[in-house]
Amino acid sequence: MNLLDLLIAPAHATVAAAPAAPGMGMQLLFPIALIAIMYFLMIRPQMKRQKEHRAMIEKLGKGDEVVTNGGIAGTITEVGESFITVQIADTVQVRVQKGAIANVLPKGTLKSA
């Protein structure tokens, strides 16, 4: 025995237990939860807005007051298969795609503006 052994206890190598690895279910739980959160916060609301916009486009008719995505407000004078003619002044008519209609305004909105 050494004098140093009396002052400092000798260190013996011990085999440490390996940390328990998370199960396969726990490893898959996080990505699945992340996808579910993204679906409910991002994808589902976007799909709902698209559905509402398609329904609005299908209901468009002659005489409806609309605003385009570019901010042009006018009254629909003609509805085609994929294009709509919008009258924006007495002698000015513009043809726009149906998808370019952003909102349908209540009747009389353009007269009061």
From TrEMBL:
What is its membrane topology? Single-pass membrane protein
Report the locations given in the UniProt record: Cell membrane
- List the SMART domains hit by this protein, alphabetically: YajC
List the GO biological process terms: protein transport
Q: What is its main location?
A: membrane
In Swiss-Prot or TrEMBL terms, this protein is called Sec translocon accessory complex subunit YajC
Has the keyword Nucleus been applied to this entry? no
Q: Which family, according to UniProt?
A: Belongs to the YajC family.
Q: Which domain of life is it from?
A: Bacteria
Source species: Marilutibacter penaei
Q: Name one GO cellular component term.
A: plasma membrane
- Keyword flag Cell membrane: yes
Gene name as annotated: yajC
Sorted UniProt keywords: Cell membrane, Membrane, Protein transport, Translocation, Transmembrane, Transmembrane helix, Transport
Which parts pass through the membrane?
A: 26-43
* Pfam family membership, one: YajC
